[in-house]
Amino acid sequence: MRVVIIGNGVAGMEAALGVRARQPDWDVTIVSEESDHYFSRTALMWVFCGQMSQQDIEPLERDAYQRLGFRRVRARAVGLDTDEKKVFLAGGLEPLAYDRLLIASGSTPRPGPWPGSNLRGTGHFVTMQDLAWYEAEVHGGESRGGRPPRHDAHLAATTDDSPYRFREAAAAKRGRLAERPAIIGGGLIGIEAIEIAVAAGLRPHFFIREDWFWPIALEPREATWIGERLAEHGVEVEQAPMAHADLVDVREAEYDAEVAGAGGRRGAGFAADVAGGLFNSGEYDFDIGLHIRKRRIYVL
Ligand SMILES: Cc1cc2nc3c(=O)[nH]c(=O)nc-3n(C[C@H](O)[C@H](O)[C@H](O)COP(=O)(O)OP(=O)(O)OC[C@H]3O[C@@H](n4cnc5c(N)ncnc54)[C@H](O)[C@@H]3O)c2cc1C
To answer: Biggest alpha carbon distance in the chain?
Structure first.
C-alpha cells in the first residue's frame, strides 16, 4: 500500500506516525516544500528571539524519517490525477503514485489587500522562509543555530507564487536594519510579530482594523488593558479600518518593514487549488471530514 502525505506539519506528521503504528509495512511518502524536518510553527518566534535554535523546535529527532521508513520528497505539489492516482510535482519531477492520499498542506498567509503589499520590505510571519526574511530585516541574518539542513532544497522544484519562496530583505538593499516596523493585523500572528520586534529593541507600530485588539478572543476592557501594556513597551496601537491605501503612503515615509498579519487561509494553496477545485466541481462526493469517497483522498 502506497500512502502519500502532502504536508510535513503537525497534521501530516501525526498522520504518518498513526499509519506507521498500525501498518509497519506500508510505503509512506511525505511531500513537503517548506522543510526537510517537521517543526513547531508556533515556536518560530523563539527562534527569531534567539532563545531556541531551529533544531530545538523540531519535535522529532532528525533521523526519525529514516528510522520510521518515511520517504521524503522536498518539492511543491502542483496537481492531482484522481483517476491515475498520481500527484504532480513542480520542477519536472516524476509524479508520485499513491493508493491513498492525505492532503495536510496547512494554510497560506493571506496577502495584504492593499497596494504595495508585495514590495520588498513587506512579508508575513508564518513559514520558515518568512522567519528568514523577518530575521534579515531586523537582525541582518540568522538569529541562532543557523538555518536547518537543506533549507533551500525546494527551490529546484517550486513555483513563482509559492509561499515558501524566499523574499529579499529591504534592509540589505538599504544598508540599514529595520528600525520602525509596521505590523498590520490584530490577531495572534500580529501580536507575536510585535512581541519579537519589541524583544529586538524596536518600537513597532500596530495597525488593527477591528474595533479593538483581537475581538474574537478578548472583550474591550481586556483589549484596552493589553493596549496600555503595549504602549508601556513603546508600541503604538492604531485602529485603521481598511484605510490601507493611506496606510501604505504613510508607511513608505515612516516604516521600514511591514508584516502583514492578516491571518492565514485554511486550505489555501494545494488543498484549495486541487482538492477545493474537485469539491467545487461537484464531481466528487466529500463527507464531513473532507474525505473524497471512493477516491481514497483525505484532506486535513
Ligand atoms: C506565528 C504563528 C503562531 C501560531 N501560534 C499558535 C498557537 O499558539 N496555538 C495554536 O493552536 N496554533 C498556532 N498557530 C497555528 C498552527 O501553527 C497551525 O494551526 C498548524 O501549524 C497547522 O498545522 P498543519 O500541519 O495543518 O499545517 P502546516 O504547519 O502549515 O504545514 C503545512 C505543510 O504542508 C506543506 N505544503 C503546503 N503546500 C504544499 C505543496 N503545494 N506542496 C508540498 N508541500 C506543501 C508544507 O511544506 C508544510 O510541511 C500559529 C501559527 C503561526 C504562523
So the answer is: 60
pLDDT digit string (tens) for 47-62? 999 999 999 999 999 9
Is 12 strand, coil or helix?
helix
- Tell me, using a 6 A CB cutoff, whether residue 109 lines ligand 1: no
CB 292 within 8 A of CB 286: yes
Q: Is the dihedral of CA 157, 160, 161, 163 positive or negative?
A: positive
Cβ neighbours of residue 263 closer than 8 Å, sequence gap 6 or more: 109, 110, 185, 187, 189
- Pairing relationship of beta strands 264-266 and 96-97 according to DSSP bridges: unpaired
Among 41, 78, 102, the mutation site with the greatest number of ligand 1 atoms within 8 A of its Cβ is 41
Rounded (10°) CA dihedral 188, 193, 198, 201? 170
Residue with the smallest CA separation from ligand 1 atom 51 is 42
pLDDT digits (tens, 9 = 90+) for 129-143: 999 999 999 999 998
Cell numbers linked to 145: 543555530
Q: Name all domains of the chain by residue range, CATH numbers in brackets.
A: 2-105+269-299 (3.50.50.60), 111-263 (3.50.50.60)
